[in-house]
Amino acid sequence: MAAFDWDRRNLKKIRAHKIKVAEAEQTLSRAPILIYAKEADSEARFVYYGETEGNRLLAIVLMERESKIRVITAYDLDATKQTRKIPGFEGEDEEAKWWASREGRAFIKRQSAAISSRKQKGSALVTNLNGAASVQMALRLPAPDLAKARQIAGRKGIGYQTLLKMLVHEGLHREARRQ
Predict the structure, then answer these.
(1) Burial profile 69-79: b = 16 or more Cβ within 10 angstroms, e = fewer
(2) pTM of this prediction?
(3) pLDDT of the residue at 21
(4) Which of 2, 54, 59, 82 has the smallest number of Cβ neighbours within 10 A?
(5) Is residue 137 part of a domain?
(6) Phi then psi dihedrals of residue 82, to 5 deg
(7) Could you read off the pLDDT of 87-139 as tens digits, one per residue?
(8) Range of the domain at 147
(9) 37-50: per-residue pLDDT in tens?
(10) Are residues 17 and 105 in the same domain?
(11) Is the domain of 101 the same as that of 77?
(12) Do 148 and 120 have their domain in common?
């Protein structure tokens, strides 16, 4: 399963749209629809439409960086303004603001109709994420470990279960490389 790259910058961007980390990750793990793919600053950018477990429709703009999924921004789907082409961006912040604007969202909606007639290659990490089905399990942890996980997760702005899943995933990959 692919890991996500979250930091203060991209967390601030999704929180501005009242999107939670868990919602963004759920959306990408539930077979989202690739709407748009573009090269920007020598990195591929992908726009996906998807649905959370709570049936909330989201658009998520992301890139792949160091084998991790880095969400640039995410927002609810509701657009009215129209744009014919993507403007040039000075940096990730400016790009995130544009994609989150009404103009950017309208652009994505128009692209979705055009995409159905042509095939694009989406993010390999998102594809792999969808191929790895999650299995529910129960796990007993010492209370101090759980408290520490909640503290660290709170500091990072993510859910403690997401943090634990990431730690298990990273630990398993590290151990697999040792063999």
Answers:
(1) bbbbbbbeeeb
(2) 0.50
(3) 93
(4) 54
(5) no
(6) -115, 140
(7) 777 888 888 888 878 777 767 766 654 554 445 567 777 776 666 556 667 78
(8) 143-178
(9) 888 778 889 988 88
(10) yes
(11) yes
(12) no
